[in-house]
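User: Let's play a game. I give you a shape written as tokens, and you guess the letters that built it. Ready? Here's round one.
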């Protein structure tokens, strides 16, 4: 079986070598990405994810993420940012660029590897395969956990991991207003400091995606309280 390929962009050679070694020992293949050719490197190969090591280069990471997400050939490849603690401004820029997941440096290898395995196809992750066929129905919507896909009348959208977890949490209690703190606890990794504004960015993106899919405004903002979903 071909090892899943992870493309890594980093300006820190020592960090790249360390991360590459860790991933290789865990059954992944790695390759280094360059600023200029990241789309070419990604679009022509079966890349399973792109890791952008922000550190002191978070602005560059956001620009590269936007480049990947704006290109049709690479827009659906999961893109992960490693950000320095306290880089809230750059974290918001990464969200606006379409980043799928973020971890604070120094990141726990176990957390990063668990996330990478969670986004592999079912045939490449035994743990993922056990729950890969899970399908959940909410009104006229169907959620496929394996692909983080929402289906409505034959049309479908794919959501980022965080947005899929947000929607799943909202769907558990239709009509209930969830605070931003509750949504952070449900959707984000425990080692990441998340600001309320970050929740708003994700919820706005999720609301637009669902409205495009269904033609309805399913997510309601409750001023000073949080968010609720209504069918």
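Assistant: Ready! My guess for every position:
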């Amino acid at each position: 079986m071909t090892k899943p390929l992870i493309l890594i962009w980093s300006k820190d050679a020592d960090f790249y070598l360390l991360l590459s070694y860790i991933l290789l020992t865990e059954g992944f293949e790695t390759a280094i990405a360059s600023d200029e050719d990241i789309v070419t490197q990604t679009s022509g190969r079966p890349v399973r994810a792109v890791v952008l090591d922000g550190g002191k280069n978070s602005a560059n990471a956001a620009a590269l993420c936007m480049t990947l997400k704006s290109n049709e050939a690479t827009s659906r490849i999961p893109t992960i940012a490693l950000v320095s603690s306290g880089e809230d401004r750059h974290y918001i820029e990464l969200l606006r660029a379409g980043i799928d997941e973020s971890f604070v440096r120094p990141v726990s290898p176990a957390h990063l590897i668990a996330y990478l395995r969670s986004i592999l196809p079912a045939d490449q992750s035994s743990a993922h395969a056990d729950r890969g066929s899970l399908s959940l129905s909410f009104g006229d919507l169907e959620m496929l956990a394996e692909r983080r896909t929402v289906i409505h009348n034959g049309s479908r959208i794919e959501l980022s991991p965080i947005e899929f977890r947000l929607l799943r949490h909202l769907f558990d209690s239709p009509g209930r207003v969830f605070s931003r703190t509750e949504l952070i606890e449900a959707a984000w990794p425990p080692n990441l400091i998340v600001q309320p504004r970050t929740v708003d960015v994700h919820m706005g993106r999720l609301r637009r995606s669902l409205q495009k899919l269904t033609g309805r405004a399913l997510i309601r903002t409750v001023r000073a309280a949080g968010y609720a979903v209504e069918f």
